[in-house]
Specification:
- The chain is mainly alpha-helical.
- The chain has a single domain, classed as Helix Hairpins.
- Helices cover about 85% and strands about 0% of the residues.
- Helix 1 packs antiparallel against helix 2.
Length: about 160
């Protein structure tokens, strides 16, 4: 068998310093990831609020569209103002349809953005768990080197 190397006090101190630096870097990374996750959660919350408002607006526009359809039916019954009312209602209906389409497009875009942010948030959460595990491993390794035992160790 080959002789096993014996570490010196300098080697042990150097290993402690390196492990300490790595642990500090891991803690900094974990804090950065946590800050990013908090920001994503805040954005997700804001998107939910905007999404709810957009859904309410879309519902109001759909209701207005239904009301305009009823008004149009009534206008057709009136013979003396039929042309004027029909043109007016058609212009309103086109405007509402345009607004409804725009609102639907915005709602779709918000839903896509929300889904993307949620998937990013979940990925960040998984990365955060991995960093915590690595931090615990390096903390355990630091605990081995921090003992008062100055005897040479065999690695």
């Amino acid at each position: 068998m080959a002789p096993t190397p014996i570490t010196t006090v300098d080697d042990t101190a150097r290993m402690r310093r390196i492990s300490s630096e790595r642990a500090e870097a891991l803690v900094a990374k974990e804090a950065e990831i946590q800050r990013l996750c908090d920001g994503l959660r805040e954005r997700d919350s804001r998107l939910k609020t905007v999404e709810a408002a957009a859904a309410e607006r879309l519902q109001a526009l759909q209701q207005a569209h239904a009301e305009l359809a009823a008004i149009r039916a009534e206008a057709l019954e009136r013979s003396h103002d039929q042309d004027r009312l029909t043109e007016e209602l058609a212009a309103r209906e086109l405007r509402i349809i345009s607004l409804e389409k725009t609102a639907q497009e915005r709602l779709d875009a918000l839903l896509e953005a929300n889904a993307a942010l949620r998937s990013i948030s979940y990925a960040r959460g998984n990365a955060n768990i991995v960093w915590r595990i690595l931090t615990r491993i390096f903390s355990a390794l630091l605990g081995i080197f921090r003992r008062n035992d100055t005897r040479p160790r065999i690695f």
